[in-house]
Amino acid sequence: MSPLATGLISWWLLKDNPFTVRRVASLLIAITGLSFIFYEQWQLELKALWGVLGILASSVLFSFSSVLVKKLSLATHPPDAFSQATGALVFSLPGLWFIWWIQDGHIPDQLPPVEAWGSILYLAVIGSLCGAVMFFYVLQRLAPASVALITLITPVLALWIGNGVANEALSFQAKCGVSLVLAGLCLYTDWQIGKWWQLFNRWVLNQYRQPAVEDSFIKHQQDIQNRIDRYK
């Protein structure tokens, strides 16, 4: 949902239409892949419906904020990515406290095990702080519609890491979903093979040209030195 919402909001605020037939088809393929991944977790209940509506609303708000940050950074000199990440985390902290108070509001009596502390520390430092800094850094340099593709890559990486580290089993539907997401991302990306081929040819020519130029320069210096010695 986030890539589609970000693209529509970019079209509205930035006057930039990121949609082509190929990209729309690739997004639909990737979203179909996500539906395959989470197929076993689908629930058609009233509570699940409210949860889905909440996720859709948060996705739209996230997309709107990303495009708005991009628009402000284009209009003025943007602050560095670390300052933006710090402001976003501080702004979200009261909301997290409020949700904790509504859901539970209870401080555990026993400390969690060491593995849990390691997971919490990793999520706080890498997942929240470093992740937010890198997100705003990339957002300053790429289009919001391209940055929104992170939301499609994250579930696939989570499945791979879970399978490789924790030996979590992948169902047939999940494997099909991963394949569809990767196919959609490959179709969405403009690989610019011709441009990369030109850069490669330029690099190869420079590798052969530099020794030839150096040899010519050395011969020219030797010729000048021979002429000087002749006049002496």
Write up what this structure looks like.
The protein has 232 residues and is mainly alpha-helical. The protein has three domains: 125 residues, no CATH class; 61 residues, no CATH class; 40 residues. It contains nine helices and no strands. Helix 4 crosses helix 5. The longest helix is centred in the C-terminal third of the chain and has 39 residues.
Mean pLDDT: 77
> What is the count of distinct domains?
3
Strand content: under 5%
The unreliable regions are none
Q: Roughly how much helix do the residues carry, as a percent range?
A: over 70%
- The total count of helices amounts to 9
| Helix-strand pattern | HHHHHHHHH
Q: Report the sheet with the most strands, covering strand number, pairing sense and barrel closure.
A: none
Please identify the structural class as seen in this structure: mainly alpha
> Could you tell me the number of beta strands?
0
How far apart the termini lie comes to: 82 Å
Which descriptor suits the 3D outline?
Answer: elongated
> In angstroms, what is the radius of gyration?
27 Å
What is the secondary structure topology, with strand pairs?
Blueprint: H1 2-13, H2 21-37, H3 46-75, H4 81-103, H5 114-139, H6 144-147, H7 150-165, H8 172-188, H9 193-231
Helix pairs in contact: 1-3, 2-8, 4-5, 7-8
